[in-house]
Amino acid sequence: MKTSERMEEIRLQLDEINLEILGLLSRRAELVQEIGELKKQKGTERFDPIREKEMLDNLVEANPGPFDDNTVRHLFKQIFQASLGLMEEEKKALLV
Amino acid sequence: MKTSERMEEIRLQLDEINLEILGLLSRRAELVQEIGELKKQKGTERFDPIREKEMLDNLVEANPGPFDDNTVRHLFKQIFQASLGLMEEEKKALLV
Hints:
The structure is a homodimer. By secondary structure, chain A is mainly alpha-helical. In chain A, about 85% of the residues lie in helices and about 0% in strands. The N and C termini of chain A lie far apart (about 60 Å). The first copy, chain A, has a single domain, classed as Chorismate mutase (Chorismate Mutase Domain, subunit A). Chain A has 3 helices and no strands. Chains A and B meet through helix 1, helix 2 and helix 3 of A and helix 1, helix 2 and helix 3 of B. Chains A, B: This is Bifunctional 3-deoxy-7-phosphoheptulonate synthase/chorismate mutase.
């Protein structure tokens, strides 16, 4: 296979993977919203640093590479923060 | 179902989704490494801002929510940057 053909093939695969990641991120965000709603009903704090640490530790343990562990932690912290951001927005909307 | 049972169920689902996202991010990173290798052989620049913009536009177009478009852009820019970071590391390793 020519280099340019292989590059095109990889690009198509990347496009597919991007959409799969987006789908999982969106599904994840919905679940976090639901858990936020349940926590609100129970009156418990939404941000749970122990649970976040547990999730990060699990991810680092399962990290197959090539990203190093710090990069995995960084990327998932961004994902967690964005999810908390969603709950904050909802809070703001309720205050308006 | 009790609230606490549903919360536990969601947590298990989040753990699964985290691992699925990690798997896709890792597969994605491998493909980016391969494309970087092919570009090196061809002598072309590895960072392609037009391709990056195209990928972000595709993702925003496909965004089902609940994340807003800016959050989707932000999260994927972090993913793209981490992948470029991998190529930079490899470059540094070659220079040593």
